[in-house]
Amino acid sequence: ALDEVPSARVQCSYERTPRPDAPTLVLIHGMDSDRTTWACVLAQLSQRFDIVAIDLPGHGRSPVRADNIYSPDELANDVAALLESLGVKAALVLGHSFGAFPAYLLAIKHTHLVRALVIEDMGMHRRRAGGTLDQILKASGASRERFPVSARFDTVDHVRAALDREGYVPSRIDTIVTTRMARDDDGRYFVYLQPHVSYLVGYYMRECDGDEIIKGLKALQTPILFIRAASNSAMSDADAEYVLTQWETARFIEVPGSDHSVHKSATGAFLQAVDAFADYVLS
After folding, report:
1. For the ranges 140-154, 167-181, 186-200, which has the lowest average pLDDT?
2. 161: helix, coil or strand?
3. 259 pLDDT exceeds 50?
4. pTM here?
């Protein structure tokens, strides 16, 4: 079922496969993505769960925010408003990549809504010091209009090669080339990123700090499963080692043969990991 729920905060679009007697699983996509990323696992997950797959504000079919604020804190509050309007309580919440930020903040700020967390290949980079948002974007090669700010390419193959070097998987490269590529007046190609997504890039590099994220997650009493990609992972080796050796209450799995979008690149193993974790949480 497709629907849109207006709230005092924002109008969020979502997809729900309702199972009234089943536990709720909330799916939160990553940066510059939308709920359709879960299409490859939705049928299987909906056999066990009441699924709520969300388009974050400014993504998919959800409108942009009038205040242009897309911080993980605000996105977590938007997700909470949607779940409250749906009567959802004590859900399993799964966040992929950047979507894991509002997922874990949802657990911290709205504890009654979250029974357990699944963190899929979340990066926990250390904060870059100082600077305005525009300065951070410029230093990273991003801008509010184009990303990266100065990159121009003679051919589509050159665009694809550059995206490959940045760690994008082939399916994501296809999507970017189809929906985010344009040509300048001189005929050269560039990759366009929506302004609110550039904001997320800059916010992530300026404000998100791995040490603080780990501290916040460890303070939760909520069961947590970390799913890490085997290649092109956003989660550093050091953070993975820390979770494995220093975090006794967290569960961790690195999925062989997977890349950053584990649910797409290793669907069977991903589903097995989520199912086993749900058995543990719900037992």
Report:
1. 140-154
2. helix
3. yes
4. 0.80
CB atoms closer than 10 angstroms to residue 263: 25
Residue type, 31: M
Distance CA 70, CA 247 (A): 30
**104 contacts 117 by C-beta, under 8 angstroms:** yes
SS3 27: strand
Are the C-beta atoms of residues 14 and 82 closer than 8 Å to each other? yes
pLDDT at 255 (0 to 100): 97
What is residue 82's predicted lDDT score, i.e. its pLDDT? 92
**Alpha-carbon distance 270 to 274, whole Å?**
6
Distance CA 91, CA 53 (A): 12
Place of tokens 């584990």: 262
Task: Give me 111's structure tokens.
Answer: 């504890």
**Cβ count within 10 A of residue 45:** 22
Write out the two tokens for 93.
């919440």
> Would you say 138 and 189 are in contact if contact means Cβ atoms under 8 Å apart?
no
For the chain, how long is the longest CA-to-CA vector?
Answer: 62
Cis bond leading into 256, ω under 30°? Answer: no
Structure tokens at 44: 């299987």
- The helix (run of H) or strand (run of E) holding residue 170 is helix 170-179
**Tokens at 274, concatenated:** 């989520």
